[in-house]
Design a protein that fits this description.
Radius of gyration: 32 Å
Strand order of the largest sheet: 3-5-1-12-9-10-11-22
Shape: globular
Oligomer: single chain
Helix content: 25-40%
Distance between the termini: 63 Å
Strand content: 25-35%
Number of helices: 25
Structural class: alpha+beta
Largest sheet: 8 strands, mixed
């Protein structure tokens, strides 16, 4: 406490991060690093291989017989011990954390296996036998909304679970009188945050108290605590939820861990032991939450000068198989901001929420903003093009006027502060737009595809809890009672030696809580930041918190740091009153500075901070009247601006509103379709900047996420609901090689609504960058419409001239795969050192089949041409046990035979056939030729294209190669490519 604070205080400076020392030296304590109680069991989850199917039976007897297995939890126990989870809208439907009666997406939990360790639990999962009746699936939201679409929930009349219409102003009149109408239809894809650390839960149950104690890397919002407690049938004080201080990223996704909190809590209750589960990467990709995909048609009524008088929105939101809280938050978070940064007074909105056979959705960085701005800013570019105007002029003419803040939007948001025109001008001047325009001119003169994109956006932060109730009609809201506001909580305590501790109900995922809050408190108490310790874990049984607590919607700087500032100021005022008596001056003349309490007019008249703070501990009788204590102060801060939606459905859905103006230059390779970002400039007004270095980190991180969303990332599903991007070889995320360094600029307009004047900044580029890059690509390629992600293949197809069809007829026309399946074909040949008849005889020998079938544990002959086998197969990181049936048909001894078979197991299912022909090409020499077709489905199909189309074909072809090698007198020397692949990919691959 001897350092002299810099002029102007610590806040607003890029001081070294307190967090970095532990994180950079490998001393972080993440979920999987936390100590667990002796005797803790471990869980594995058996997941659905089908997108849609009835569950006919579940037989866990073999799994329970495996030594070390304690419990197999299925829907029977879940329904007996818990209640259905809260559904995001009023509808006749139940949502459970496990499949009940039917599965509705690939990866849905079907059973939880609890054992002595994870290895045993995974092996036992392979032994759980589930019989399914496959149903038709629907993954396209438009198709799902049709009346005749396969229905996910029989209790509903269709898959559209909610629809609402909104009108603000007089949009019909505005469209009637408009000189022009311009419209776009866009499809925003699913993507996710893919944090380095996946989900993790450790749960225990106390039967004496009927209480659960759960540690999970849950992000919040803590309104979900009530959902968990209700589902577990216990009051909130018997559902203790703890979150660790360190997190390997979340970006909103880890709010989706809560169904697993329920499952693991129930598993611990049945096992009567603590249970731990750490999600693996395949589970996270295929079955954790992702962002919603949305189909939007947006039409504008436009004047001849490009001014927009009215907007007409039609939004179809795909929330997957179940509508789980807090959804439909993604659709309604931006409701007050549907006009973006523009002064548009007439708006019509149609919102529909549809269910499909895909993973349930959740919060993802910027949730709602990327989907909304992709439509709005694509529309603004189309207006400029169709009216022959400069896109910059269209943006400028429609911006909210300077000097009009706080500004109430047509749909109810109260934009707190800003000067959008000044920020835009600064970005253009300091970001070098004139030079970028010259670069485009020169590139086009050389015949290169070069384009410039623009985006203007408002970034909301500090969500109003009431915005989600806009999904209800005004009458339904009145019946349910008002829900609105936001709350942040901070506690500051001082120990007997004057050390200061800060506790907040917000768990960091990289925002630098410990550093920034130490700066804020140090300024208020006249200390150096190193004298302040910040505790950033959360324990609902110990800490002050509310259902609005958590780290989401960019709440940290404006709300959490703001509440901490208020708590620090309250303690400072009490300390000044205590010090005044010791210094013999009025309390108003006391300053806290340089680790002391000192008289303002005579700094030498001072006493140490520790001595003043210690008085409440050591001499409480000396405290002045009206100062009850100074050792602890807790503040619950609630902004008054966040009111409930009114009867006209207007809602101020967020407290703060930053402004973003981006522009970029990109070049598209005319041959390959590859997109190169030449320059990216992003201007942010995030109010008062508390730590410039961390703001730059948040902007850069959001930009990297957005580059992935724009150019690479998509949760892809087949028409049958099979998941096609189940590995990081198929779901591509950007690396430092794909993410250029953006030019980051700032314009500060402090918010009048927050204690520190700060606004959010961590989500903005996820909202602005995808559409900015899309606008640039559209400009480069002269496209009317663009679809994300902007992968090279998609762009190259559109850029290329139409190719003439091949004159060569295909050698084989494969039958189409059935729902839930993926087609594979292949052929090959091998020279066998054996007579043709000897090879033929081996095909009918069970011992031969056991030797050559990859991963076979045993083969039993049922008839002269039918065999049963128990097989373990692995495809890359996916491995499991199957029951296989093999049959020989179309026998033409000793020249040809068809070998067919089917499998079913924890990894999924498959069937295939191969035609084998034997040709004696020399004495004791036989050429074995094979051609096969196979289809597979379930988890193994979710591995995806690159790995599956290579490794799975090796698995299928392995049988024929092994047959040839075995007939030749052995299994080969194991030195060839096939053998190396087999060793690389695991047994049977």
């Amino acid at each position: 406490m001897t350092a002299i604070p810099p002029t102007g205080g610590w806040t607003g400076r890029s001081v070294p991060r307190v967090e970095d020392a532990a994180l950079l030296t490998g001393r972080g304590r993440y979920m999987d690093d936390l100590p667990i109680a002796p005797g803790t069991l471990h869980a594995a989850i058996l997941r659905s291989p089908h997108a849609h199917a009835k569950i006919l039976s579940i037989d866990a007897s073999k799994a329970l017989a495996l030594p070390g297995v304690a419990v197999v939890l299925t829907s029977d126990e879940v329904r007996r011990l818990s209640r259905a989870m809260t559904v995001g809208v009023k509808a006749d439907v139940e949502a459970w954390p496990i499949a009940v009666d039917r599965v509705r997406y690939v990866g849905e939990p079907v059973a939880v296996i609890v054992a002595a360790d994870r290895y045993i639990a995974e092996d036992a999962a392979d032994l759980v036998e589930v019989e399914y009746e496959v149903l038709a699936a629907v993954v396209d939201p438009g198709a799902a909304a049709e009346p005749d679409a396969p229905r996910l929930h029989p209790s509903l009349s269709g898959n559209v679970i909610n629809e609402r219409l909104f009108r603000y102003g007089d949009p019909d009149a505005a469209f009637e009188s408009a000189a022009n109408r311009v419209a776009v239809t866009v499809r925003y894809p699913r993507n996710s945050g893919t944090p380095i650390e996946t989900y993790g839960v450790v749960a225990s149950y106390d039967p004496g108290e009927d209480a659960y104690d759960v540690t999970a890397n849950f992000q919040g919002p803590f309104s979900i605590h009530a959902v968990i407690a209700r589902a577990l049938n216990v009051p909130g004080n018997r559902m203790r939820l703890r979150t660790p201080q360190d997190s390997g990223g979340s970006f909103g996704i880890k709010q989706g861990v809560f169904p697993y909190v329920i499952l693991l809590a129930l598993a611990a209750r049945l096992a009567d032991r603590p249970v731990k589960w750490i999600e693996d990467r395949l589970e996270h990709l295929s079955a954790s939450v992702s962002a919603t995909n949305r189909v939007t048609t947006l039409e504008a009524a436009v004047g001849v000068d490009g001014r927009v008088a009215a907007l007409r929105w039609d939004q179809l939101e795909d929330c997957g198989a179940h509508l789980r809280a807090p959804e439909p938050a993604t659709l309604y978070r931006m409701h007050g901001n549907m006009t973006g940064a523009y002064a548009i007074r007439h708006v019509a909105i149609r919102n529909r929420i549809v269910l499909t056979n895909k993973t349930p959705t959740g919060l993802n960085r910027g949730f709602g903003g990327p989907q909304m701005y992709f439509a709005l800013e694509r529309l603004m570019q189309r207006i400029a093009i169709e009216l022959g105007l400069d896109p910059l002029d269209v943006i400028r003419r429609n911006l909210v006027p300077a000097g009009s803040f706080p500004y109430r939007t047509a749909t109810g948001a109260l934009l707190d502060s800003g000067d959008y025109q000044a920020a835009m001008t600064r970005a253009i001047d300091q970001g070098g737009l004139a030079g970028l325009i010259e670069t485009r001119r020169a590139a086009r003169a050389e015949g290169r595809l070069y384009g410039i994109g623009y985006t203007a956006a408002v970034e909301p932060s500090v969500s109003n809890m009431g915005y989600i109730t806009a999904v209800l009609s005004p009458a339904a809201r009145r019946k349910a009672g008002p829900k609105n506001g936001a709350q942040a909580t901070a506690t500051i305590a001082i120990d007997p030696l004057g050390a200061v501790s800060v506790k907040v109900a917000s768990v960091p995922q990289g925002q630098g809580h410990r550093t920034v809050l130490a700066q804020v408190v140090a300024d208020a108490l006249g200390l150096e930041p190193g004298a302040v310790r910040v505790l950033a874990d959360v324990d609902t049984a110990r800490d002050a918190w509310s259902i609005a607590s958590g780290n989401y919607s960019s709440r940290f700087a404006p709300a959490v740091a703001g509440a901490t500032k208020l708590a620090a100021d309250r303690i400072a005022e009490k300390l000044k009153r205590v010090a005044a008596g010791q210094l013999n001056v009025a309390a108003g003349e006391v300053d806290l500075a340089n680790g002391r309490a000192q008289a303002r007019g005579n700094p030498e008249n001072a006493v140490s901070f520790a001595r003043v703070a210690a008085a409440a501990h050591w001499a409480p009788g000396t405290l002045p009247d009206g100062v009850d204590q100074t050792i602890r102060e807790t503040v619950f801060w609630t902004p008054e601006q966040l009111i409930a939606p009114d009867d006209e459905d207007a809602v101020n859905s967020s407290l703060c509103h930053g402004f973003i103006f981006d522009f970029c230059g990109v070049e598209v390779d005319r041959l390959t379709g590859a997109v190169r970002i030449d320059k990216y400039v992003t201007m942010h007004d995030c109010g008062r900047i508390l730590h410039p270095g961390m703001v730059a980190g948040q902007v850069t991180g959001g930009f990297a996420h957005a580059v992935g969303a724009a150019l690479l990332e998509e949760y892809a599903y087949g028409p049958d609901g099979s998941f096609l991007s189940g590995t990081l070889a198929d779901y591509l995320i950007p690396t430092v090689m794909e993410v250029p360094e953006p030019v980051i600029l700032h314009y500060e307009s402090p918010s009048p609504f927050t204690p520190l004047g700060a606004k959010g900044v961590g989500e903005g580029n996820c909202m602005s960058t995808p559409v900015c890059l899309a606008n640039a690509v559209a400009d480069a390629c002269d496209f009317d419409d663009v679809t994300l992600p902007l992968v090279p293949a998609r762009l190259a197809d559109r850029l290329a001239t139409e190719e003439k069809p091949s004159r060569e007829a295909p050698t084989r026309t494969a039958a189409p795969a059935k729902p839930g399946e993926r087609k594979l074909t292949g052929e090959g040949s091998a020279l066998v050192a054996a007579p043709r008849q000897a090879v033929w005889d081996m095909l009918l020998d069970p011992k031969t089949l056991e030797a050559v079938i990859p991963g076979a544990h045993g083969v039993r002959k049922v008839s002269s041409t039918r065999f049963l086998a128990d097989v373990t197969l692995g495809v890359g990181p996916v491995k499991g046990r199957y029951r296989a049936e093999i049959e020989l048909s179309d026998l033409d001894e000793p020249g040809a035979v068809t070998l067919s078979g089917g499998t079913d197991g924890a990894l999924g299912f498959g069937r295939g056939s191969g035609r084998i022909t034997l040709a004696e090409t020399a004495p004791d020499r036989t050429t074995v030729h094979y051609a096969y077709e196979a289809v597979i489905g379930g988890k193994v199909a979710s591995v995806g294209g690159r790995l599956l189309d290579g490794a799975a074909r090796v698995v299928i072809g392995q049988f024929f190669k092994s047959l040839a090698a075995h007939a030749g007198g052995g299994k080969g020397n194991g030195s060839g490519l096939l053998a190396r692949l087999r060793r690389l990919l695991g047994r049977g691959a």
